[in-house]
Design brief:
434 residues; Lipocalin; 8-stranded antiparallel beta barrel; 30% strand
Length: 434
């Protein structure tokens, strides 16, 4: 037997190459050596193996047995390599079958579908918004939506038939008879907004904010003379155009009624009865006046501080030409020339917005003259109607209905000047400083 010097495989006598690894075996000359005739010991084989550092011997299994039977390891390796290279090559698509998907193709397809869905939904939303905008513009009419259209929208959203009645029709009729409300078959709901009316020497202000919630139709705030709110709560529907005001929403079931009011058919005024009957009218924005702008005095408040009768009495000493046309002054600095001590001096009035709670005050003002006169004064402006403004002391409590003013000013039709009159003659004219 001949042993392979590389792997230690036993080979038959006369073999020139190892049947396991294919290495050349010892020649015939080496075979004559006495050591090669004997079977090498285990220690010699280990030493021989370490010195030559051969690869680990293959396991003697069915695979190695098949290789020994074929007798050509290199051909097997070449065949395996060719087989592996053919498997890595993409196979040609056969007729009737689709091409195999590329790596990552499924993920790319899903991403593409998501993008298409996103753009499709975005386009649909844009079309929907455009359609709604076009519909709203069409419904607004050719004038782009005026106050009448707004009233119609409020009328639709404040339909009494949608409210839960607090009383039966019979009870509502009895209440109306006791309170003195007029009987009507035209059951209406008041528009939301601010209502103002005069009750004796007081100015009553009520703000209605529709917000239907069960029995509650909306919130209500009541104030007198424009000071702090004296009553705040909710209002509910009783039937027959009658509404009840409660202090709190949780007091609705306890029948804790503070006041009742009656919605007039025009929906822009309400009737209240508390000892006497008085009407509160809804405060619409003031009509466009000459000289009206961002600094117009009447833009904040349109409440009159004088009745027509009282204005006539006050005007006896001034002699203003009272007209039906109202004129709104603008905020700003007004100057006038006045003669004093034989010299001409400049008097300045500065009109500024008023942010307080008094409904009679439309502006606060400061008047001063040049240094020679050493004159300065702070006061409030109140609106009397007919283009006339009243001057009051700089005290909010001293400004109110039927309170006597210190003086009256007459606004010119341009809204940029006003004059001080006496006995039907103009004493001094103030003009808006440029």
């Amino acid at each position: 037997m001949a042993f392979c010097g590389q792997c230690g495989q036993k080979n038959p006598d006369g073999a020139k190459f190892c049947s396991a690894c294919g290495s050349p075996l010892a020649t015939s000359v080496d075979a004559t050596d006495s050591r090669s005739q004997e079977t090498p010991s285990m220690s010699e084989r280990i030493i021989l193996h370490r010195e030559s550092a051969p690869p680990p011997p293959p396991r003697r299994d069915s695979t190695s047995q098949s290789r020994r039977e074929t007798g050509n390891l290199w051909q097997d390796m070449n065949r395996n390599r060719d087989r592996q290279s053919r498997q890595e090559e993409p196979s040609r698509p056969q007729r009737g079958f689709e091409k195999p998907a590329k790596k990552g193709g499924k993920l790319g397809s899903c991403l593409m579908k998501l993008i298409l869905w996103f753009f499709g939904i975005s386009a649909l939303i844009c079309l929907l918004v455009w359609a709604i905008s076009a519909f709203m513009n069409d419904s607004g009419g050719s004038d782009g939506g005026n106050d009448e259209n707004i009233v119609e929208i409020e009328k639709d959203t404040q339909d009494p038939s949608t409210f839960e009645r607090m009383m039966s029709p019979t009870s509502a009729d009895s209440l109306g008879t006791v309170k003195g409300f007029p009987k009507t078959t035209d059951d209406v709901a008041p528009l939301g907004g601010e209502y103002v009316g005069i009750a004796g020497e007081y100015v009553i202000n009520i703000t209605l904010k529709p917000a239907q919630n069960g029995k509650v139709v909306g919130n209500v705030v009541m104030s007198a003379n424009g000071y702090k709110a004296v009553r705040e709560g909710v209002y509910c529907y009783c039937g027959n155009s009658i509404y009840a005001i409660y202090k709190y929403e949780n007091h609705v079931e306890r029948n804790k009624v503070q006041n009742y009011f009656f919605a007039m058919p025009d929906r822009k005024s309400i009737m209240m009865i508390d000892g006497e009957k008085y009407i509160l009218e809804r405060k619409d924005p003031p009509p466009v006046q000459k000289g009206k702008g961002s600094g117009t005095l009447l833009s904040r408040n349109y409440m009159r501080c004088m009745t027509d009768d009282f204005l006539k009495i006050e005007n006896e000493d001034f002699g203003y030409p009272i007209k039906d046309e109202d004129t709104a002054l603008q905020f700003g600095t007004y100057v006038a020339k006045i003669e004093a001590k034989g010299e001409m001096h400049t008097v300045t009035y500065v009109l500024e917005p008023y942010d307080g709670e008094n409904l009679f005050i439309v502006a606060k003002a400061t008047g001063h003259a040049d240094e020679d006169l050493k004159y300065t004064q702070d006061f409030y402006f109140g609106y009397c109607g007919h283009g006339i403004y009243a001057i009051y002391n700089y005290d909010e409590d001293d400004v109110g209905l039927l309170k006597s003013p210190k003086g009256l000013l007459y606004a010119a039709s341009d809204g940029k000047s006003f004059g001080v009159w006496d006995k039907g003659k103009s004493m001094m004219e103030f003009k808006l400083k440029k």
